[in-house]
């Protein structure tokens, strides 16, 4: 098929100028201090703001639980 109206290089580049990706914004968890996305629960400690949503330590084994508790206390 033949192109009916060819877009110039300038038109093509102006359209593509809005396709740039932006880096994800990161905040800091108020409980453990790890970087976390805004409006998302912290995967390290299970807190969302000041409220604990998930008990991260409940699903861990004995050794992993001890290590995680020590890590959270050091921060």
What does this structure look like?
- By secondary structure, this protein is α+β, with helices and mostly antiparallel strands.
- It has a domain at 25-74.
- It has helices at 9-16, 62-74, and strands at 27-28, 35-36, 47-48, 51-52.
- The strands form two sheets. A two-stranded antiparallel ribbon has the order 1-2. The chain has a two-stranded antiparallel ribbon with strand order 3-4.
- β1 and β2 (35-36) form a beta hairpin.
- 4% of the residues are buried.
Task: Record keyword descriptors for this entry.
75 residues, alpha+beta, two-stranded antiparallel sheet, 2 helices, rod-shaped
Q: Cα-atom Rg, whole angstroms?
A: 23 Å
Overall mean confidence score, pLDDT: 87
Unreliable stretches, pLDDT < 50, 5 or more residues?
Answer: none
Structural class estimated from helices and strands: alpha+beta
**How many strand segments?**
4
Question: How would a textbook summarize the main sheet?
Answer: 2 strands, antiparallel
Strand order of the largest sheet: 1-2
The sequence of SSEs as H and E is HEEEEH
Percentage of residues in helical conformation: 25-40%
Give the termini separation: 64 Å
The shape, in one word, is rod-shaped
Summed up:
It is built from two helices and four strands, in the order H-E-E-E-E-H. The chain is α+β, with helices and mostly antiparallel strands and 75 residues long.
């Amino acid at each position: 098929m033949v192109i009916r109206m060819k877009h110039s290089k300038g038109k093509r580049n102006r359209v593509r100028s809005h396709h740039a990706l932006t880096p994800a914004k990161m905040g800091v968890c108020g409980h453990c201090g790890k970087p976390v996305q805004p409006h998302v629960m912290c995967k390290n400690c299970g807190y969302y703001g000041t409220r604990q949503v998930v008990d991260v330590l409940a699903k861990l084994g004995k050794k992993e639980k001890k290590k995680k508790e020590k890590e959270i206390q050091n921060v």
